[in-house]
Amino acid sequence: MKKLIIDVDIGVDDAQALMMALSDPDVQILGITCCFGNTPLENVLKNTLRVLKVCNRLDIPVYKGCSEPLLAPKRHAGDYHGKDGLGDVPDPDAPGLELLQKKKAVTALIKMIKQNPGEVTLVATAPLTNLAVAIQLEPSLPKKLKALYIMGGNTDSRGNTTVCGEFNFVTDPEAAYIVLDRYTCPTYIATWEFSCRSSLPWSFCDHWLSQKTEKAAFMKKITDLSMTRAKSEEYQKETTEGQGFNACDTYALAAAINDTLITEMEEVGVTVELVGKYTRGMMVLDYMELLNKKNKVFVIKTVDLEKFKEMLMKSLQ
Ligand code: BDR
Ligand code: CA
């Protein structure tokens, strides 16, 4: 059984990632920690419970985390994910927030990881604020993780939020800096450019979403807005390499639960730019080893897309 903690800012692709984890019988989700990001924290909490309800898994503990970045001004991604973070589809039967755990996300992260030393894989698909605060409180925490999978950052200077910045890193650059400075466990990064290269053809998306299940109907509803936006000429221009749907967070999650998915990666020291006028929040790759980083991360270059599609199909069955 793989023990997972997922740190989310649900978010359409976070929802996809969570549903993929829930569909794998070999995965045990110890808890879901929520962070502000795509949408304000209250929405993230509601959205997480909505996804768990559709999957009949309201037994999984959900924790309330940070509601704002460490230093940066707050930003959200309502244009893409919808104002409510899940495509602005009303849900009168959404579960109430009384189902949340009393313990806060950062405290829970520390406790869950310490109770399972060397066994937990953490998948972070949101700004890294919760994890950064947890590491500040408990610097030995990364040592106790089995692995860390992050969706965020970039390999070139192509941003999706600022000129050079990817949303999760740009939204809390200091948090991303802290995590990439202090991690000591094997760390894998699914960057923005990698996910653009791995986008899913629209024909596959139609096939995926037309499955006759309650989960597929839910996914179709919540992805409608972002898929319409992603299909627009303007967006296709922005992402250049993407000819279809970019399932950002789901690549990181899929790689975390299926070791054989990654087909190419490179090991390199990385950090995050904190001061640049245009480059603040951009991930910096130290190919020349000038930063003397003790630890390197694995930057994912390619994944087996056919395997990934199979996992996506299964996630809605
Ligand atoms: C990342 O930012 C969010 O919009 C997505 O959920 C993903 O985590 C992509 O840059
Ligand atoms: Ca996300």
From TrEMBL:
Superkingdom per UniProt: Eukaryota
Coiled-coil residues: none
Domain Inosine/uridine-preferring nucleoside hydrolase positions: 4-310
Regions crossing the membrane: none
Name recorded for this polypeptide: Inosine-uridine preferring nucleoside hydrolase-like
Family, as annotated: Belongs to the IUNH family.
One GO MF term attached to the UniProt entry: hydrolase activity, hydrolyzing N-glycosyl compounds
Organism: Takifugu rubripes (Japanese pufferfish)
